[in-house]
Amino acid sequence: MKLKIGEHFFSWDRPLVMGILNLTPDSFYDGGSHNNTDDVLRHCEKMLTDGADIIDIGAFSSRPGSEIISVEEENSRLIPYLIEIRKRFPEVIVSIDTFRKDVAKNALENGADIINDISGGIFDDEMLPFIGENSIPYIMMHCGGSIESLHTNLIKENPCEIVKSFFEKQIEFLSKHGEQQIILDPGIGFNKSMKSNFELLNNIDRYRVNDLPVLIGISRKSMIYKTLNITSKEALNGTTVLNTIALMKGADILRVHDVKEAVEAVKLVEELRN
């Protein structure tokens, strides 16, 4: 597997770990923790030291009940920190968690490498044409509905078939606009019942399309802490257990808050396979 980032090709022969950097004041787990440049750079450095392959930066909270901020607000939260991260860590691969084409364009002009779209191109009609025409590495996440209904309108039956059909449709549309560099994300925790979340985790190859890499993002999510009757702050062990299962089921990228533990899971699973 490989991605063309700028003028260079990035390839990998093992699962990657994507570290989460939330710049939102209201994220479900670490909202408000990184609200000045020193804290942001320190957190990035720790994730990279712990072995992160990609840093995923988000400035729009998608937790239940979160405020829908403007494009201007999202840019103002994101771009100054992105510029500082790129200065301090020029070699790091940076992903931007946004569903807005204008934010994506601004981020790419300021050093971002990948766009991570929680809507898979359905919240902004300009996103997929922009991605295709500029050959941008793109994480296509499944969701059903609108930004207001990300955590309602739940899929309760046949989630693998629904997610695969969504990917096929969006990939076909994207293919009309140019080169594709797609990573698939089933959107565990978004518009899915608890049963469907576990079914998607257990059957990764049932919705994989065109042998594309699959990203799994389950870090400290409610499918863990509600099942175990704990809080998100207590869900590290459960996250590591399910990340390990995801790797065994074929996940190519883990998106996590806790990089060190995910990297250890990757190393152990790779040793087991070898």
Outline the structure in words:
Helix 4 (127-133) packs across helix 5 (159-175) and helix 8 (236-248) packs parallel to helix 9. The chain is built from nine helices and ten strands. Strands 8-7-6-5-4-3-10-9 form an eight-stranded parallel sheet. The two termini are 19 Å apart. It has a single domain, classed as Dihydropteroate synthase-like (TIM Barrel, Alpha-Beta Barrel). Strand 7 (138-141), helix 5 (159-175) and strand 8 form a beta-alpha-beta unit. The mean pLDDT is 92. It has helices at residues 37-49, 71-88, 101-109, 127-133, 159-175, 194-202, 222-228, 236-248, 259-273, and strands at residues 2-5, 8-11, 16-22, 54-58, 93-97, 114-117, 138-141, 182-185, 215-216, 253-256. The longest helix has 18 residues, at 71-88. By secondary structure, it is α/β, with parallel strands linked by helices.
Which stretches of 5+ consecutive residues score pLDDT under 50?
Answer: none
Looking at CATH, the homologous superfamily is Dihydropteroate synthase-like
Largest sheet: 8 strands, parallel
What portion of residues belong to β-strands?
15-25%
